[in-house]
Design brief:
This protein has helices spanning 16-26, 34-41, 47-50, 53-75, 89-101, 115-128, 137-146, 152-155, 170-177; strands at 4-9, 30-32, 80-85, 105-110. The chain is of the alpha/beta class. The chain has one domain: P-loop containing nucleotide triphosphate hydrolases (Rossmann fold), CATH 3.40.50. It binds adenosine-5'-triphosphate and magnesium ion.
Length: 189
């Protein structure tokens, strides 16, 4: 049986966690949702703390450990869903490359969303789900600019681009993007 890691890609409110839970059931997959960990560990956060630089750094560290756990699970034969957002093409390239070194398939699951629908969903979720934060229109617009939508090569899982200059491998790039992740992947592992 082919083992697959699913890379769920999309902006806040795009429906990532909803889709990740569907895959968790339909593919008997291990779902890794960093928001769950962040909310559990930093449960007293108000919206200002939640937006702080400290929290962003800790979030990266949570994600790094979840990448290591997820890749190990995939290596052991379990399908995995990374419910991370993965706004950057380089992030996706790194995880696709690591999957390749472990001999598992990577599938990008892209959930596009327009601004109006996104705002509607986030507002209604904020009203019905405790612990969820409201996000301003200015933030949502800024994030649409930052977000790098997956291209056709990514969606078809072909052609992983070369690692950016200054990095020996995508594993090394990933260990800098997620500081709690060791540079431990490569063709020989
Ligand atoms: N396909 C859909 N159609 C309509 N509503 C949806 C759809 N998918 C999810 N929703 C609703 O939109 C809201 C956001 O969904 P969800 O929490 O899955 O998004 P998310 O991408 O995980 O967001 P975040 O990045 O903030 O975690 C939820 O209230 C969910 O019920
Ligand atoms: Mg979510």
């Amino acid at each position: 049986m082919t083992v697959t890691i699913y890379l769920v890609v999309g902006l806040p409110g795009a429906g990532k966690t909803t889709r990740a839970k569907e895959l968790e059931n339909s593919e008997s997959a291990l779902r890794l949702t960093p928001d769950d960990w962040q909310l559990a560990i930093f449960r007293g956060d108000d919206s200002r703390r939640w937006r702080s630089k400290d929290r962003a750094d800790q979030r990266d560290r949570i994600e790094g450990k979840l990448v290591a756990v997820g890749m190990r699970a995939a290596q052991l034969g379990i399908n995995v869903v990374f419910d991370f957002g993965l706004w950057g093409k380089d992030e996706r390239s790194a995880l696709r490359w690591i999957a390749g070194t472990l001999g598992v398939h990577a599938q990008v699951v892209y959930l596009p969303i327009n601004f109006e629908e996104q705002r509607r969903r986030i507002t209604s979720r904020y009203e019905t789900e405790p612990g969820q934060f409201q996000m301003s229109d200015a933030e949502l617009k800024q994030w649409h600019v930052q977000f790098q939508a997956p291209d056709q090569a990514e969606l078809r899982d072909t052609e992983i681009p070369p690692v950016p200059p200054g990095h020996a491998t995508w594993s090394q790039w990933a260990s800098q993007r997620w500081p709690s992740l060791h540079d431990q992947y490569g063709p020989t592992t």
